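Why should sequence recovery work at all? Because a backbone constrains its sequence more than one might expect. Tight turns favour small or flexible residues, buried strands favour hydrophobic ones, and helices have their own preferences. The token representation captures these environments compactly. In the example below, the structure is given first.
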């Protein structure tokens, strides 16, 4: 789904680029690159979070003993 959205943004930006001035073109391209970078970073952070949640899990017996 994220890839589809990224492609949609890229297509929309490419359509608009031909109708605007150079400063706006530069801004749009910068924003598109930043969006792609943040999307990739978000994916890496999600994976790290999943790994961290798996690694730090206590057994249910240990949890029960600590809460008593």
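From this structural description, the recovered sequence reads:
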């Amino acid at each position: 789904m994220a890839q589809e959205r990224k492609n949609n943004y890229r297509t929309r930006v490419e359509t608009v680029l031909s109708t605007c001035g150079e400063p706006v073109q530069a801004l749009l391209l910068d924003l598109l690159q930043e969006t792609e970078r943040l999307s990739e970073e978000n994916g890496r952070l999600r994976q790290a979070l999943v790994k961290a949640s798996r690694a730090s899990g206590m057994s249910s017996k240990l949890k029960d003993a600590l809460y008593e």
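A few observations help interpret the result. The mean pLDDT is 86.
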